[in-house]
Amino acid sequence: MRYSYTIRHIPGKSITTANTLSRLLLAGSVTPKDNDLMEDTDIYVDAVLEGLPTSSKYLTDLREQLQSDSVCSQVMKFCAEGWPDRNQLQGVVKHYWSERAVLSVHNGLLLCGTRLVIPANMRNAVLDKIHEGHQGVVKCRERARQAVWWPGLSNQISELVLKCRLCIQERIKVREPERPWQNLGADLFTLKDKNYLFVVDYFSRYVEIAQLSPTRSANVIVHLKSIFARNGMPEVLITDNGPQFACQEMRDFAKDYCFEHVTSSPRYPQSNGKSERQQL
C-alpha cells in the first residue's frame, strides 16, 4: 500500500484545535425552516405561560428578580451562550447543571421545561402559596410541578409540610392498628351517577363497598351495620365531616354500638387520606 497509518481515538475535549468545517456556523445558514421552528417554539412557550396560574404583574416582578439574582442571571447567561463543564461551576449554580438540557430563557423568564424557575428571594412566598390549603406532601408537590421549579424544591416542600404548626395541631393521632378490623376509614364517592359507601380496613386494606340510594345518614348507618355484622365491630371509625357522618344520628350509632367515631378537621381533611387514597 502507498500509505501505512495507525488509527488512534482522541476524546473531543482533548482536541485543542476543533474541526472548523463541522463546528463553524456559516453566514446565512439559518434556513426558513429554522425560522419557522423558532416561531413555533415561541408560540408554544407563550401558550404555556398564559396557562400558568400567575398574573402579568407577577411575571413582571419575576423578570426583575431574575435579573437581580446572581445565580439565576448566571444560569440565564449559560442558557444563551452555552454551559461549561460542571467542575468549572461555582456554588449554587452547580445544582442547575443537571437540568441544563431543559433550561431555557424566553422573554426574560427562566424556564425549566414548562415551569417557571423562581429566584431565592421569592421562594418562601411561593412555598406558602403551594401549602395554602394545608394539603399533604404529595398534593403540594403535584401543585408545584404544574408551575414552578428550583433546585431542592421537593425537599423544601416536605420540610414545610412536616413542620407546619397547623398541620401538626390538626393531624389526627390515631394509633396504628394491631389487628384486622380494628381501625376503619369510611367515605362516600360517586361513579357513573351512582353514590357509594366506601369502607377500608387500615390494617389489611380490605375494602367493602355498598351502593347508596339515597345518601342520607340513616341509609349510611344501615349499610355500616350490615358490614359490621359480617366482619365484626371496629374500635375506631374515621370519616370526614360530610353531613352523613357529622350528625347526631352517627354519634348515637357510635355510642350504641360502642366504637369511637373520629372525624377529620374541616381545615385538615387529608387526615382521612387512607380511605380516599384507596379509592384511586
TrEMBL record:
Gene3D superfamilies from the UniProt entry: 1.10.340.70, Ribonuclease H-like superfamily/Ribonuclease H
Domain Integrase catalytic: 176-280
Highest taxon listed in the record's lineage: Eukaryota
Any one GO molecular function term: nucleic acid binding
Any single biological process term in GO: DNA integration
Protein name per its UniProtKB record: Gypsy retrotransposon integrase-like protein 1
Organism whose genome encodes this protein: Nothobranchius pienaari
Taxon lineage: Eukaryota, Metazoa, Chordata, Craniata, Vertebrata
Gene designation per UniProt: CU929163.1
